[in-house]
Amino acid sequence: MSGVLRRLSAGGIVGLAILVFWVAMALFGSVVAPHEAGAIVDMEVFLPVSAQFPFGTDYLGRDMFSRVLHGTRYTVGVALIAALIASGSGLLLGMCAAVWGGWVDGIISRTLDTLISIPSKMFALVVVAAFGSSVPVLILMAGVIYTPGAYRIARSLAVTVNAQDFVTVARARGEGTLYLVREEILPNILGPVLADFGLRFVYIVLLLAGMSFLGLGVQPPNADWGSLVRENMAGLHEGAPAVLMPAFAIASLTIGVNLAIDVLSGGRRSGEAG
């Protein structure tokens, strides 16, 4: 780990710092926020940035800094859980398909190919229309949408490793499927899978932000960053920070995750090579 840290570039340090900051805010943002999420703190709306209000105020005179911090748990938390579901399910199914092959591979692959053929936003709109936009529904919806992509990556990697000589030798000496998956295949695909997990997380953040911007994501009185942009659109013509700051938060999170992906996947590959 220390070797990886010494090899970090400036971009990698920035990316990891941004990622750690937003994860910490997802956990403790409601504690460190100076005001309650719904508290009206000033009679003036769309106030500019100031020492008292670092992100200005929104269309009701609420502190946007507090609103963004409270919203982090929905933007980051929901996306993180959904990405874990998608990548975990894709990894498990991909390794099963690669190791067992045959009809198991065919059934799993054809089923997920059918799902991936449906446009993600259309699928999301249908699910929300049918079941509402509660947080559990949003998590499961996003997790299902991005499972096929994670499966394709995991299966492709696992098939390549499964064909290697060291796996053939392990199988010839009588090792079971669980051993092959745990000791031979998973360690050799974990780096790319972690990188893909980061991408799934970014995709889900953007999907959920888009749904919230349309009014179909996290519902009031709760709010994520996408809904914060939508509800303050009236201040766009005057450049109110209430519109810009949630958008900047989304941009900073996606940039930070992408920089962290490059560092973590690169660092793992270097460690394995050594």
UniProtKB/TrEMBL annotation:
InterPro entries xref list: BP-dependent_transpt_permease, MetI-like, MetI-like_sf
Topology in membrane: Multi-pass membrane protein
Family annotation (SUPFAM superfamilies): MetI-like (SSF161098)
PROSITE patterns documented for this protein: ABC_TM1 (PS50928)
Chief location of this protein within or outside the cell: membrane
Record's keyword terms, sorted: Cell membrane, Membrane, Transmembrane, Transmembrane helix, Transport
Intracellular or extracellular location(s): Cell membrane
ABC transmembrane type-1 domain mapped to chain residues: 72-261
Name this polypeptide is given: ABC transporter permease
Recorded GO CC terms: plasma membrane
An individual GO BP term: transmembrane transport
Originating species: Neoroseomonas eburnea
Family recorded in the similarity comment: Belongs to the binding-protein-dependent transport system permease family.
Regions crossing the membrane: 12-33, 74-103, 123-146, 201-219, 239-261
